[in-house]
């Protein structure tokens, strides 16, 4: 559930902190008081589109932070967070988003900086926002299959995974098969190009690591004179007349004489003696190296040409010799496939045929499971619609098979929700016949069914009850309350029937402070709540009669909630 929401410098909100409870929270207040602004802020936490226009006038950035508490350690959001390396040991999820006046977004989850797409993925697993104009899933037939699969739950997951695996293999092989079946001219041109490239690489006889070795050798040759002079000077300093070795030899003799008289100097004598002989050996080795040193301009030229040839190949085939060798391997494989394409075509054609048959079997299994789920969904929807006073409506999930042999990533057919809202009328696509009020009730019916299985911690309704009244309003209120049994629900409403069912009632109002308009939130209870309910019933003036009606409505709502839970 969303436990706490903190908003700073967002629209007309200066600094606002709201704590929420479990169950149903209703937000009421005059039109324009800022109720929808609070929902907009929550929507940003779910990865919704941000805009500089959201930033309060005079501020450099807007900040929104939401703390969610999740009791279920197996909640899908934890798996997502684990994948991206975010700690969740406390079972809490803190979403934070900042919008600055430069148009940039800063998003964090439990303090870790994340991209907007990751925030959207995690936020979408926690928050489901449904507004009075947000019926895209119902109005888009492409989404109907998703809703049906969501309803099917685990019973369909294994079959979907099997189908997806087969479909991926089939489409990959089909693409390869199509590439082999290109026209002969293109294939011939490709063979010529690959043959030329491979001959050029093979002729170079590249060896992994040789470029580094050649570069080191070139460096030595380019600096031959400096090296020779330095080594010669070192040898002269050690071996030259009256130079290092002679002086160390003198020191060795003197210390040997001293040690023969006083053993205190024995260890020092041995150390200097060892150093003398080491220097003598080193001088001999340096002299040998000097005698062997010889500048070879032809070798330097050979290295330069070899490195230039490697650089030319790198420009064409890879950033390093190793990359070129990998490229050579992949292109050799492709050339082999093209040269032996007739044989490969036969093999792939047979394999395609086998995969297509497997795909057909998996697709038929999917369809069978979906039809069983569709039958259950239709019954559940009808039951919900009856409770929402659409008892004469008929609902059906219509399957439309693809042409024989045709499949997509979801299976071998498409589906659409069909409905008849009046007795005796034929079933027609929901997207073409349902009114706004009917769509709202359809969405509520679906939310009631899915809220038990979705795992969404917070469902938000933004004035979904607009345009209804009377017994339909009461039915919608009870349906929203029923959804809140399984998920926390935040609801903006102008209906007293919905407000009466609330476990928490928040009143939103605009105030003027220091010549600026701000939005304030006040939790109502007792007499204050009765008065707000009275205002919602009467529209403006509060009377003893409207207060009595409000009290009665609250008592009835309390009894209905007890019956639900």
From TrEMBL:
Keywords on record: ATP-binding, Coiled coil, DNA damage, DNA repair, Nucleotide-binding
Listed CDD domains: ABC_RecN
Coiled coil (UniProt feature): 335-376
RecF/RecN/SMC N-terminal domain span: 1-510
InterPro entries linked to this entry: DNA_recomb/repair_RecN, P-loop_NTPase, RecF/RecN/SMC_N
Keyword Cell inner membrane appears in the UniProt entry: no
Domain of life: Bacteria
Gene3D superfamilies referenced in this protein's UniProt entry, alphabetically: P-loop containing nucleotide triphosphate hydrolases (3.40.50.300)
Record-linked Pfam families: SMC_N
Function per UniProt: May be involved in recombinational repair of damaged DNA.
Family classification: Belongs to the RecN family.
Protein name: DNA repair protein RecN
Source species: Planomicrobium okeanokoites (Planococcus okeanokoites)
Organismal lineage: Bacteria, Bacillati, Bacillota, Bacilli, Bacillales
């Amino acid at each position: 559930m969303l436990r706490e929401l903190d908003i700073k410098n967002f629209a007309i909100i200066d600094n606002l902190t709201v704590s929420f409870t479990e169950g149903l929270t209703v937000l009421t207040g005059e039109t324009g008081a800022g109720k929808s602004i609070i929902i907009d802020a929550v929507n940003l936490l779910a990865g919704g589109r941000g805009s500089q226009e959201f930033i309060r006038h005079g501020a450099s950035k807007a900040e929104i932070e939401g703390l969610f508490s999740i009791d279920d350690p197996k909640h899908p959001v934890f798996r997502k967070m684990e994948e991206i390396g975010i700690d969740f040991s406390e079972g809490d999820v803190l979403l934070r988003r900042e919008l600055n006046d430069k148009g940039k977004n800063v998003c964090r989850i439990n303090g870790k900086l994340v991209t907007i797409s990751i925030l959207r993925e995690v936020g979408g697993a926690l928050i489901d926002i449904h507004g009075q104009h947000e019926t895209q899933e119902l109005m888009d037939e492409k989404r109907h299959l998703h809703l049906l699969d969501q309803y099917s739950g685990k019973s369909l997951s294994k079959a979907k995974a099997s189908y997806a695996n087969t479909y991926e293999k089939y489409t990959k092989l089909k693409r390869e098969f199509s590439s082999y079946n290109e026209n002969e001219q293109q294939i011939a041109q490709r063979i010529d190009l690959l043959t030329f490239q491979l001959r050029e690489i093979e002729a170079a006889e590249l060896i992994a690591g040789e470029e580094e070795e050649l570069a080191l050798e070139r460096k030595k040759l380019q600096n031959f004179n400096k090296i020779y002079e330095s080594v010669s000077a070192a040898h002269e300093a050690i071996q030259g007349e009256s130079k290092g070795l002679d002086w160390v030899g003198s020191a060795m003799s003197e210390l040997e004489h001293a040690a023969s008289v006083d053993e205190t100097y024995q260890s020092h004598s041995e150390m200097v003696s060892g150093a003398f002989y080491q220097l003598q050996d080193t001088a001999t080795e340096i002299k040998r190296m000097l005698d062997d040193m010889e500048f070879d301009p032809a070798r330097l030229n050979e290295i330069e040409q070899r490195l230039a040839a490697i650089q030319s190949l790198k420009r064409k085939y890879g950033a390093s010799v190793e990359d070129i060798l990998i490229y050579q391997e992949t292109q050799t494989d492709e050339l082999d496939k093209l040269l032996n394409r007739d044989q490969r075509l036969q093999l792939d054609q047979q394999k395609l045929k086998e995969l297509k048959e497997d795909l057909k079997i998996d697709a038929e299994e999917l369809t069978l499971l979906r039809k069983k789920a569709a039958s259950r969904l239709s019954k559940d929807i009808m039951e919900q619609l009856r409770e929402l006073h659409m008892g004469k409506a008929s609902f059906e999930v219509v399957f439309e098979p693809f042409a024989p042999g045709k499949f997509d990533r979801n299976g071998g057919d498409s589906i659409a929700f069909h409905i008849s809202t009046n007795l005796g009328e034929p079933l027609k696509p929901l997207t073409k016949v349902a009114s706004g009020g009917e769509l709202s009730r359809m969405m509520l019916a679906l939310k009631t069914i899915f809220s038990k299985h979705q795992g969404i911690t917070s469902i938000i309704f933004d004035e979904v009850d607009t345009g209804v009244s009377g017994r339909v309003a009461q039915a919608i209120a009870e349906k929203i309350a029923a959804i809140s049994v399984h998920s926390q629900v935040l609801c903006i409403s102008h209906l007293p029937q919905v407000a009466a069912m609330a476990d928490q009632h928040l009143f939103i109002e605009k105030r003027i402070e220091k010549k600026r308009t701000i939005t304030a939130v006040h939790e109502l209870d007792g007499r204050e709540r009765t008065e707000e309910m009275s205002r919602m019933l009467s529209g403006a003036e509060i009377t003893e009669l409207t207060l009595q009606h409000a009290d009665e409505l609250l008592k009835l709502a309390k009894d209905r909630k007890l019956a639900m839970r």
